[in-house]
Amino acid sequence: MAQTSIQVMKIADLYIRVSTDEQAEKGYSQRDQEERLRRYCEFNQITIRKVIHEDHSAKSFNRPAWQILLADLRKTKGRLSDFVIFTKWDRFSRNAGDAYNMISILRSLGIEPQAIEQPLDLSIPENKLMLAIYLSTPEVENDRRALNVINGMRKAKKEGRWMASAPIGYRNITTEVGKKMIIPKEPQASLIKHAFEKIASGIFSTEQIWKLSRSNGLNCGKNNFLVAMRNPVYCGKIFIPKYKDEQSHLVAGQHDPLISEKLFYEVQEVMDGRKKKMGTKILSPEELPLRGFLYCTKCTRMLTGSASKGRGRYYYYYHCTSACGCRYKAEDVNVAILKELKKFVPKPGIAEVCTKMVNELYYLEYSQKGDSRKEIVSKIEILNNKIKVARELLLKGDIDGTDYKTIKTESEEQITGLEAKLFDVSTPQINIENKLKNAVNVLLNLDLLYKNGNMSLKREIIGSIFPEKLSFDGTQHRTTRVNEIVSTIHLISRNLQSKKKWVNDEKTCLPTRVGPAGLEPATKRL
User: Fold this and answer.
1) CATH code of the region 3-145
2) How confident is the model at residue 23 (pLDDT cuts 50, 70, 90)?
3) Cα–Cα distance between 69 and 63 in angstroms, integer?
4) What is the structure's pLDDT at 15?
5) Helices (H), ranges, 85-126
6) What is the Cα–Cα distance from 169 to 103, expressed in whole angstroms?
7) 9-22 burial by CB neighbour count: b if 16+ within 10 A, else e?
8) Does domain 162-261 have CATH number 3.90.1750.20?
9) Pairing with 75, which of 122, 239, 255, 404 sits 20 to 30 Å away (CA)?
10) How confident is the model at residue 231 (pLDDT cuts 50, 70, 90)?
11) CA gap 237, 137 in Å, rounded
């Protein structure tokens, strides 16, 4: 014991520290520490000035109670206290570097730190070796604990477990056997899925999709939304970050995905700008539903919209921001788009025929996807060869390890995306007949849906049917491309209407062969 190092009638501040995890794991108690420190001071005739209780980690001295004590000691410059006493050196600090610095500060104020269970007379040089052991031992313990936590979490992630609070659209649960996992949480899960689909379409800007999702009930800030759109957890993958020599990579998760890998990588391409389209705002004034969808026929800039105040009311116009002078009355443009949409409404009585023929066309197209699969396999093979060549160059000494890791990481990321697409073209597609029926039912009422819908619905309809921007020549709208399904149904409807009579037998209305002009329906003419 070091009773002889502390003089009679000295004054001391008692420092009592315990963190919440230490109290839970090791049973440390502030009350027990205080009792031992008071007995020590009573036995050694030391007057207690203050008792400081701390419930904070000792990884640094950025602790509330300690900072208050230190400020008081600096203010009095050690005149009111001779010692800061604690039970063990790990109550003082668990970081050797910080501890030496703080000991130096206290001694400059004329105050001696002392641990009653690990007493040291620091005026004796040899005792500094023991001090180093006392201070480094808890630091080593901290480092070992942190390493165990890192390794444990990394192992769990490699097993496909999500090791954090559930991301947006999921919730944390504990199964009956005590296993922790995440499961989809509605309606957030459906809103996240819808957001991915909208971003992949490239029609609307990411910010507008976030705003629309928020208005529909998605509780998420803009930055968190952008982070979520980058998170592979939604396609069933867990990200393993880089650690030492091990490169970052993805593993299959144990949770249910909300979207496909193909959709996830399409969204990444859009957000990275590799599949960039000019984003259009979802919302617009009621009188200007086409703002952002029209381009100028004179200078090809996007037309904007504004209002001019006339006698008693406002008059709305679509106009160009350049000096070309392109300007149209909003009323004329809006009437013309409604007429254009009416062209795509199937004629009564042929909706079922359209559904069956488009369904056949879909499966005919899917049966020819072999070329697409070969192309993807070829790209994967090229990237694997690239990694192989880089490895050979590394062995020859032509490139260093950093360059090799960069080439390998970039190539493997591209391979992961291509494999997701390969899985998509290799997986049998679901029967889309019901979806086609719904699409045809929407087209049957397309003009009414547009006319009576709110602004968001109107712009969704325009963006879905016309993937490219529209132009207006003063009387009608033109575009370079129309939605493939809508265009196909429109073509079938128009061709069937041009026939004089068709046998009302659904078996004879199915396409049976591919002729010189494409798919030819096997129908009989009376």
Assistant:
1) 3.40.50.1390
2) low
3) 10
4) 93
5) 89-92, 96-108
6) 50
7) ebebbbbbbbbeeb
8) yes
9) 122
10) very high
11) 39
- What confidence score (pLDDT) does residue 86 get? 93
Residue range(s) of every CATH 3.90.1750.20 domain in the chain: 162-261
Which has more pLDDT, 129 or 373? 129
Which pair of tokens denotes residue 5? 């190092």
Main-chain dihedrals φ then ψ at residue 348, nearest 5 degrees: -55, 140
Domain with CATH 3.40.50.1390 in the chain: 3-145
Most confident of 126-140, 181-195, 475-489: 181-195
Of 459, 451, 478, 457, nearest to 292 (Cα)?
459
Does an H or E element contain 462, and which? helix 455-465
H/E element, 485: helix 484-498
Q: What is the mean pLDDT of residues 142-161?
A: 84
Band of pLDDT at residue 510, cut at 50, 70 and 90: very low
Contact (Cβ atoms closer than 8 angstroms) between residue 197 and residue 266: no
What's the rounded Cα separation, in Å, for the pair 331 and 288?
A: 9
Helix residue ranges per DSSP H, 304-369: 330-342, 351-367
SS3 state at 372: helix
Q: Which residue do the tokens 């719904």 mark?
A: 438
362-407 per-position pLDDT tens digit: 665 555 554 566 777 788 888 888 888 888 888 888 888 888 888 8
Q: If you compute the radius of gyration of the chain from its CA atoms, what whole number of angstroms results? A: 36
Indicate the residue type of 391.
Answer: R
For the record, the structure tokens of 473 come out as: 């020549």
- DSSP secondary structure letters along 174-210: E-TTS-EEEEE-TTHHHHHHHHHHHHHHTSB-HHHHH
Alpha-carbon distance values, 165 to 2, 20, 172, 180 (Å): 49, 21, 7, 11
